[in-house]
Amino acid sequence: MPGIKDVADAINASSSFVISAHVSPEGDAIGSQLGLGLSLMKMGKKVTFLSFDKVPDFLTFLPGSALIRQGDRIDEEHDALIVVDCEPGRTGLKDLDRAPVKQIINIDHHITNPKTADVYWVNPDAAAAGEMVYDLLKHMGAPIDIDVATNLYTCIFTDTGSFRYTNADYDALSKSAELLTYGVDTWMITENVYETKSFNRMKLLGLVLSTLEKSDDGGLAWVTVLEDFYRQTRTSAEDTDGFINYPRSVKDVEVAVLFREAGPDTVKISFRSKGRVDISTFAHSLGGGGHPNAAGVVLKDTTVDSAKALVIPKMVEHIKKTIVA
After folding, report:
1. What is the pLDDT of residues 142-177, one digit of tens each?
2. What gap in Å lies between CA 31 and CA 130, rounded to an integer?
3. Cβ contacts of residue 240 below 8 Å, gap of 6+?
4. Where does the pLDDT of residue 2 fall: very low under 50, low under 70, confident under 90, or very high at 90 and above?
5. Residue 46 forms beta bridges with which residues?
6. CB 253 within 8 A of CB 220
7. What is the enclosing helix (H) or strand (E) of 49?
8. Is 297 exposed, middle or buried (0-12, 13-18, 19+ CB in 10 A)?
């Protein structure tokens, strides 16, 4: 089965890359994309950073973020497309089967990854894709400086919930400590990621929390984000990052769900578990994917009410079966 050596060999044999991550990118997606790309650039390789969605405002502090171009297709020829933190199908990029690249290289830590790329390395035990990128760069003997380290530390920091989640294991913590030796400013990262929220975002949070509901048995809680909320508060979808943690923090709740309108007849659903309920399999059954404690799916040709009617009863039953088992 392909792994870190295969990815390293493929990268070493190539000279030009497009690097992309998933739609609606967060800290791990942007950080691993930039951390890998900046290091490859220091090796003398040509790198184009491409993202379907723009970099969220709270992540524009990351070194190199201004280099990321927003778009939905690869226009120029490159030796390879490197996809980090997701499977290639989740990048939002169009016509990948006809893209002007010789191969697709995939680096991901999601257990639901189908492993369809030409060269791939999938490690569900990694806390973040950025942790894998760090291992890859060390394996290759690639250059790591403060800019690369800041991006990769942010990956682990955000995907472990500032080291609060169960995936903040020995590897995640020890590698984060190693990255600090490059001069990473931990408070600067903390301040940008968690301590700098706009007034309008807080108004949006108030509207979203007003939709908070829970199941009769208390094991499931959910919130709803309507597109009209953005108009009322002059915000956008990126401002909802982290909102799902509020229903998850409710006492006795095992799983939290965030339902978000994402365009005409489209609903994006995020799931978060406190640890006892595996939600990756549930998300996969609906056509989505993710981790045991963090997963999601996008449902087309539906409304928020229809999505709730489909998901909530099934999730309540899934929780009951899991907890009883």
Report:
1. 999 999 999 999 999 999 999 988 899 999 999 999
2. 7
3. 204, 208, 225, 258, 260
4. confident
5. 16
6. yes
7. strand 46-51
8. buried
Strand partners, 107: 84, 121
Q: What is the mean pLDDT of residues 299-309?
A: 96
- Give Cα separations from 313 to 218, 283, 292, 297 (angstroms): 13, 14, 19, 16
> pLDDT tens digit string along 59-106?
999 999 999 999 999 999 999 999 999 999 999 999 999 999 999 999
Report which of 207, 212, 211 is spatially closest to residue 233, judged by C-alpha positions. 207
DSSP-derived 3-state class of residue 39: helix
Q: What are the CB-based long-range contacts (under 8 Å, 24+) for 88-97?
A: 88/116, 88/117, 90/22, 90/23, 91/20, 91/21, 91/22, 91/23, 91/52, 92/22, 92/23, 92/52, 92/53, 93/20, 93/50, 93/52
CA atoms within 13 A on the CB side of 17: 28
In whole angstroms, give the CA distance from residue 216 to residue 235: 32
For residue 72, report the phi and psi dihedrals to the nearest 5 degrees: -120, 10
Output the pTM of the full model: 0.86
Q: Could you tell me the sign of the dihedral formed by the alpha carbons of 245, 247, 252, 256, in that order?
A: negative
Q: Using alpha carbons, select from 289, 264, 223, 271 the residue that is nearest to residue 86.
A: 289
CA distances from 28 to 65, 108, 152, 202 (A): 13, 11, 8, 23
Q: How big, in percent rounded to 5, are the helix, strand and coil portions of the chain?
A: 40, 20, 40
